[in-house]
Each structure stands twice: as structure tokens, then as C-alpha cells.
Design brief:
Chain A is an alpha/beta fold. Chain A is built from 14 helices and 7 strands. In chain A, a hairpin with a 7-residue loop joins strand 6 and strand 7. In chain A, helix 2 crosses helix 3. Chain B is mainly alpha-helical. The chains are: A alpha/beta, B mainly alpha.
């Protein structure tokens, strides 16, 4: 039997008397009366902690690195007190056959009740041969574990969008989780990596309310991904004033001006970096003087330079020709201008010729 | 004066002046033109801002004003476009010409081909048309109206992005971002459409001047008075 919240509170030194007081107080504050207090106590004593299985596919483990640095709540509290992390190849003590046994046991024991957290994504090319954890293609393992999961959390840009391993031409056909598993609710928590507090925040929300957070149209939790970096950026006043960093070594850079002109993707990136920040709220990329690269957006790796905020686009039908919208537009304008000039010239000649002809005709008529 | 009903082609004389563009259509044309004159430079400067200025951030609002002008002009353009759509239903039949080209009519297609031949110098003379000639209708529909709709829709999508997911604006126009995939893609599309609009304006200017000189009817003044006058009778 897995530990309940009551067991956990007892383990942390809270007496049964205090526990019951807590339940009565909570019921009173919610206006529930006597019966309510008993129901809360009952729930706390019987409801097991949510089991979580954490899989690693084609990835770099930066999501885990970020997760274990969470400060509010501390990662240790999440792992040791809030959830029951039954399987995580990176963090678990067990290894080899023991670890794989733990995975199978969890799937069997909590069928339909566990949360599956996926870090990285499955490569589909050549039957998934490019990612083999535990001797089997990762895509098979993912399908196997996802079958009986209650919900799936896609950690990071790899699981959410594909990230760098899915960059063109994507030789291993790395594919985001939602394109492989289509019959389960999926929460995308993109970012490369996602902010630690965003990760633990999502887990905490699911545990506290026993339901998934509100998601936006792209499947990301609204509470962390509904605002653009740009709109909450502390350098925004410099943008509105027209004060920009032109080069990374100019006076504007030293003054902390807006990084828009050196390619900051803040205006097209939905994430919480400019509000939650990183490393216990110490800083975030823009604060350290570098533009946002838009790592939590789909396709950010294939959008051209990190130092130009215009996307490099391929011109259809012109082989490999590519350029920014301005380059393409200007070229087209010059082309159309030349065509107009040529057409005007031919028109003028035609007009002049027909005039002389008409004059001749009228002379003959005279 | 006899006129072919579907295409507006003048069949035979004597030539008369015709009231083609009613006041709301002309007003729409000029306000839209005015808005585009404000939108293109401000839009370009949003994409490629002016050189950085110094001083305290509180002392200036340059980029802010550029964006404000862009948004105000855009809203005006959109409102005028909606009113123009209303006029498609209640205006005279020339108000419908560029919105509903008569693609189902053989005579109309004949007009398209004839006019195209004339522009390719394969045909000596063009026909006189009361309103837009069929090729012009087609070009206006494909190169202006469709472009205008795309630029309005992507613009509204971008405008909504600033309000964030879950806001009223995003509930109304978040689908644009979803359709294009990423906010960056909407930006690129909007930016490209600005250039497309510029190409349209170049061709529009050229055609207005050329037609005014070379065709059988007046063109330049028609958007002022609404009245088209003819210089010569149709060639038999």
C-alpha cells in the first residue's frame, strides 16, 4: 500500500490530534460543518499519493537538471512528500532488471491512475532504433506505459514540439509525444529546459486539485504560458521609448536597453521567464544581456538566426534561395518595378506608332 | 448607349457619362489609401526600428507612438472594410464588381482573355467598360481583397497575441496563431503581406495612369467624382 497524506503528516511529526483539528478547521473555513470534517479526515487517511512514472527518451536531461533545482516547492518535497515517483531512470536508486521490474509493478498496481511524465521524444525512423533504453526502442516503451496512464506530462520542448533533434532534416524522425500518443490528455510544458518552478508548479496543481490545469489552444498550462516574455519584460519601457541595443558591445547594451534589434524573440515567445525567472528568481536570459531565443516555441530551432528577429524563409520554387521578408519583398518590388517600366516603354512606342499611322491615314483621306 | 449586363462592356454608342462609384465606395477607397499610407511605414518601423535614442526611458515614447499610429490606422481600416462589405449588399452593382467577379459567365471570361491579350500587345484595342474590366475585377479580387483580408486577419492575430491566451482578444483571434503554428510565423506572414501590398500599389498606380492615357474612358478622376466619361465609341 502506498503512503497516504495522513501517513506522511504523521511521519513528519504531526499528532493525530493536530491532524483532526486541521480537518475540523478546514471544514469550518469551507463552511462544511461536522460531516465535512469527517469527510476530509477520511480522504486524507485513504487517498494515496499520486504515482508518477518519469520516462526519458531522446533528450539531454536538461529538464531533470532544471527540475531538481526547483525552490518553490523544493524538488525534494515534490519527490519525497507530494508524489510517489515510482520510476525515473535518472533519479531512482534501482538499476537494471530491478528498475524495469519496478516499472512493470507500478503499471500493474496503479492501472489507469498514474501520471506519465515524458522527457524527450521517440524517434520513429527505422522502427525507433535510434533510442534504445533497456534494450527496447523507446517508442515501444512509451506506448506501453502510456496505455494505462491517467494523463501525460510532456516535459520540455523535446516532448512538446520535437526540439533540436527534430530540426530539419530530422534524420531520426524525432516526433513529439502528442503525435504518437493521441488518446490521452497531454499537458505540454515546453522550454529547453522548462523553468523549474513551472515544472513543480504543474505537478503541485495536479496533486492539489486532482485535475489537470487549464490549457491553452496549444496544450500548455495557461497559468504559466499565457503571456509573452516581451509583455512582462523589465526592459519593455526601453522598447516603447525606442531605446535599443544595436550591438552587444555598445552603450545601449551597458545601459540595459531593449534587445529587440539583436534578435530577441521575447515578442513571439509565451513563457514565464520574465516573471518567475530562473534559479530562485535570480535572473533570466534577457536580464543577463542576451536576447530570448524562444526555446519554448514550436520550431524555434528552424527559424533562422538567434540574432535576427526576422525569420529566414525559403522562397518556394527557387531551389535553395532564402532570405528575410524584407529581402524577398525588396527583390520582388525591384522586379515588378522593372516590369512596369518595360511595359510602359512598349506601350509608349505602340501609342506613338499607331498615332503616326493614323496621321498617315488621315493625310491619304484628304 | 448599350451595355453588356454581366461585364459592363459598352456595346454601342452614343457615349454617355455614367455614375459608377457611389460616395461610400469612394470614401472607402480614400480612407483605406490613407490608412495604408500610415500602416506601411509604421509597420516597417515596428519590424526594423529607427536607430536607438538616448536619455531616460520615461522621457520618450517613440516606439510606443509608432505602434499606436499603426494600431489606430489598422482599426480604422478594418471598420471601413466591414462597412464596405455592408455596401456590397446595398450599393449599386459596381459596388459588387471586385467582390463577386462573374466567374460563372462566358462573356466575362472572354473579357478577361481579351483584356489580357491587349496588355500583352497581342490585340490593338481594348473594349470600353463602364466599371472595372473583367481582368481588373479578377486582379482586384485576388491581389487586393484577398491580400487585405490576410493582412487584416494576421494583424488581428498579432494584436491579440499581446493580450495573451485566455483574453477576449485571444479567444476571438487566437485561432490565427494556431493556424500558422507559431507567433513568429504570423509575424512573418504579416510582414510579407506588407510587401505584397506594396507590389499591388505599384501596379495599381501604373494601371491607373496608363489606362487614363490609353483606354477609351477616364480612370484617374473616377474615384473623385464617381463619374466615368468616355473618349471614343467602341471599335466595331
Amino acid at each position: 500500500m502506498i503512503e497516504t497524506y495522513y501517513d506522511l503528516m504523521r511521519r513528519q511529526g504531526i499528532s493525530r490530534r493536530s491532524f483532526l483539528k486541521f480537518c475540523s478547521l478546514t471544514a469550518a473555513s469551507l463552511g462544511l460543518g461536522d460531516a465535512g470534517a469527517q469527510q476530509i479526515a477520511q480522504a486524507m487517511q485513504t487517498k494515496p499519493r499520486t504515482p508518477v512514472i518519469w520516462l526519458h527518451g531522446l533528450e539531454c536531461t536538461c529538464c531533470t537538471e532544471s527540475f531538481i533545482r526547483s525552490a518553490h516547492p523544493l524538488a525534494k518535497d515534490v519527490v519525497l512528500s507530494m508524489i510517489s515517483l515510482d520510476y525515473d531512470d535518472t533519479l531512482m536508486a534501482a538499476a537494471g532488471h530491478q528498475a524495469e521490474q519496478a516499472l512493470e509493478d507500478t503499471i500493474k498496481k496503479y492501472k489507469g491512475n498514474y501520471i506519465l511524465a515524458v522527457e524527450g521524444n521517440p524517434p520513429l525512423a527505422d522502427d525507433g532504433i535510434y533510442c534504445i533504453p533497456g534494450g527496447k526502442p523507446f517508442v515501444d516503451k512509451l506506448r506501453h506505459v502510456a496505455k494505462d496512464a491517467k494523463a501525460i506530462v510532456s516535459w520540455g520542448s523535446c516532448a512538446s514540439w520535437g526540439c533540436v533533434q527534430a530540426a530539419k532534416p530530422n534524420p531520426t524522425r524525432a516526433t513529439p509525444v502528442h503525435k504518437v500518443i493521441t488518446d490521452k490528455p497531454i499537458i505540454k510544458v515546453p522550454g529547453c529546459p522548462p523553468i523549474a518552478e513551472v515544472m513543480t508548479g504543474v505537478v503541485t496543481y495536479i496533486l492539489t486539485f486532482d485535475r489537470l490545469p487549464d490549457l491553452d489552444a496549444q496544450g500548455r498550462p495557461k497559468m504559466f504560458y499565457s503571456q509573452r516574455i516581451h509583455d512582462k519584460c523589465y526592459r519593455r519601457p526601453h522598447f516603447d521609448a525606442g531605446q535599443f541595443v544595436e550591438h552587444f558591445d555598445d552603450a545601449g547594451a551597458r545601459q540595459g536597453y531593449c534587445l529587440y534589434k539583436v534578435g530577441c524573440k521575447g515578442p513571439t515567445t509565451y513563457n514565464a521567464c520574465s516573471t518567475v525567472r530562473w534559479n530562485e528568481g535570480t535572473s533570466f536570459p534577457i536580464q543577463s544581456g542576451h536576447g530570448c531565443i524562444g526555446c519554448s516555441e514550436d520550431d524555434f530551432w528552424d527559424k533562422g538566426s538567434f540574432y535576427d528577429h526576422l525569420t529566414t524563409i525559403k522562397v518556394p520554387g527557387l531551389g535553395g534561395a532564402e532570405g528575410t521578408a524584407d529581402k524577398i519583398g525588396l527583390t520582388a518590388a525591384v522586379g515588378v518595378g522593372a516590369a512596369i517600366a518595360a511595359h510602359a516603354a512598349v506601350s509608349a512606342i505602340k501609342q506613338a506608332r499607331s498615332k503616326t499611322r493614323n496621321d498617315k491615314v488621315s493625310e491619304v483621306e484628304k | 448607349m448599350r451595355v453588356e449586363r454581366v461585364t459592363g462592356r459598352v456595346l454601342s454608342g452614343p457615349m454617355e457619362d455614367v455614375y459608377v462609384y457611389e460616395a461610400p465606395v469612394r470614401l472607402w477607397h480614400w480612407i483605406t489609401a490613407f490608412c495604408i499610407c500610415a500602416l506601411v511605414p509604421t509597420g516597417y518601423l515596428i519590424g526594423a526600428p529607427l536607430p536607438s535614442i538616448g536619455g531616460e526611458a520615461t522621457a520618450s515614447f517613440l516606439m510606443g507612438w509608432i505602434r499606436t499610429v499603426h494600431f489606430v490606422a489598422a482599426m480604422l481600416l478594418i471598420v471601413m472594410f466591414v462597412l464596405r462589405l455592408y455596401w456590397v449588399f446595398v450599393g449599386n452593382h459596381h459596388a459588387r464588381a471586385i467582390f463577386i467577379p462573374a466567374v460563372w459567365s462566358g462573356a466575362w471570361w472572354k473579357g478577361v482573355i481579351g483584356q489580357a491579350k491587349y496588355y500583352l500587345f497581342l490585340q490593338e484595342h481594348s473594349d470600353n467598360y463602364v466599371g472595372h474590366n473583367p481582368l481588373a475585377q479578377m486582379a482586384m479580387f485576388a491581389n487586393f481583397l484577398v491580400a487585405l483580408v490576410v493582412i487584416i486577419v494576421t494583424g488581428l492575430g498579432l494584436y491579440a497575441q499581446a493580450y495573451g491566451w485566455g483574453s477576449g482578444w485571444m479567444n476571438a483571434f487566437g485561432w490565427v496563431t494556431t493556424l500558422f503554428g507559431t507567433p513568429q510565423a504570423v509575424r512573418t506572414a504579416h510582414h510579407l503581406m506588407m510587401w505584397y501590398m506594396l507590389l499591388f500599389i505599384m501596379i495599381h498606380f501604373y494601371m491607373v495612369i496608363r489606362e487614363d492615357i490609353m483606354s477609351g474612358g477616364t480612370v484617374f478622376g473616377v474615384m473623385g467624382s464617381g463619374i466615368r466619361m468616355f473618349k471614343r465609341e467602341p471599335k466595331p
